[in-house]
Write a structure and sequence with these properties.
252 residues; 72% helix
Length: 252
C-alpha cells in the first residue's frame, strides 16, 4: 500500500513543502510514482521518515541525519537504541527542570524566598563529578547513590589530584584517536570509551552502558561540558558522545 504526499504530511504533522524538500535533497525519496508522476510513499518510506523526525527532534542537522541513515553498516535497531538513549537523557534533564519549576511555584505560593543558590540549583556550576552524581541519583537506585557519596567523601586531596590526572589522560587519549582520523565507532575509539566508563565505575559509581550514553549526551547538550572538551580538541564533545554510544551498542 502506498500513500500520497498529502496523506503522509497529515500522518506525520509536517508540511507538503517539507516532504518535497526532503525529496529534492535525497533525504527521503518516495519509493513510487503514480502514472501522473505524483509521489507515492510506501511503508519503508514512512519508517525512514519516522527516523528522520526522531533525529530532527534531537537537534541533528539534515546532513548528519542523511549520513546516519545512509550508513550501509547501520542496523535499524541501532538507530532506535541511539535515539532511545538520547531521548532518555533529554527526558531526565526536563524532569529535573520541571521539578525546579514546581519547587519555585510552591515557594512562591507559601511566601518563601528562595536563596540565590536554590533558584539556580538546577543549572549549577560546571563540575563533572556533580553531574555524575546527579545522573546516578536520577537513574540509579538510592543505595548506589549512597555508595557514590560514601566513596567520594573519603577521598583526600591526593586522591582527587590522581583521579583528575588519570581522567585527563583518558580524554587526551580519545583526542589522539580522533586526531588520527579514526571514526567514533572504530574499535580504537570504542576501547577508549570503555576505559572512560570503567574509570567512572572504579572511581565514583557503577556506570552502566545506559548511564554512560546519557553522560555522553550531556557532554554535547550542556555548553559547559562542551566547552571543556572543545578546549582539548575541537569536535571532541560530539566525538566522545558518539564513541560512548557506539561502545554501548557494541556491548548490548
Amino acid at each position: 500500500m502506498s500513500y500520497s504526499v498529502g496523506q503522509v504530511a497529515g500522518f506525520a504533522g509536517v508540511t507538503v513543502r517539507t516532504l518535497h524538500h526532503y525529496d529534492e535533497i535525497g533525504l527521503l525519496v518516495p519509493g513510487e510514482r503514480s502514472h501522473a508522476g505524483h509521489r507515492r510513499y510506501g511503508d519503508a518510506d514512512l519508517d525512514r521518515l519516522q527516523q528522520i523526525m526522531f533525529y530532527r527532534e534531537l537537534g541533528f542537522p539534515l546532513d548528519e541525519v542523511a549520513a546516519l541513515l545512509d550508513d550501509p553498516d547501520a542496523d535499524p535497531r541501532e538507530h532506535l537504541r541511539r535515539q532511545h538513549a538520547l531521548l532518555s537523557a533529554r527526558i531526565g534533564k526536563l524532569q529535573a527542570m520541571a521539578a525546579a519549576v514546581e519547587h519555585a511555584m510552591e515557594a512562591r505560593k507559601m511566601g518563601v524566598d528562595l536563596t540565590p543558590e536554590e533558584k539556580f540549583e538546577v543549572f549549577g556550576d560546571f563540575d563533572p563529578d556533580d553531574y555524575a552524581d546527579e545522573v546516578r541519583e536520577r537513574w540509579g537506585s538510592s543505595e548506589a547513590y549512597k555508595e557514590s557519596q560514601r566513596r567520594t567523601a573519603s577521598y583526600t586531596k591526593e586522591d582527587w589530584k590522581r583521579l583528575t590526572e588519570e581522567f585527563d589522560a583518558v580524554h587526551r587519549k580519545m583526542a589522539e584517536v580522533m586526531a588520527g582520523g579514526q571514526p567514533a565507532d572504530s574499535a580504537e575509539a570504542m576501547d577508549v570509551a570503555e576505559e572512560h566508563r570503567r574509570f567512572i565505575s572504579s572511581g565514583y559509581y557503577d556506570c552502566s552502558y545506559e548511564m554512560h550514553t546519557c553522560l555522553g549526551e550531556m557532554y554535547v547538550a550542556d555548553e559547559r561540558f562542551t566547552a571543556t572538551y572543545e578546549a582539548i580538541r575541537p569536535g571532541l564533545a560530539v566525538y566522545m558522545r558518539d564513541a560512548m554510544l557506539a561502545n554501548a551498542v557494541r556491548n548490548s
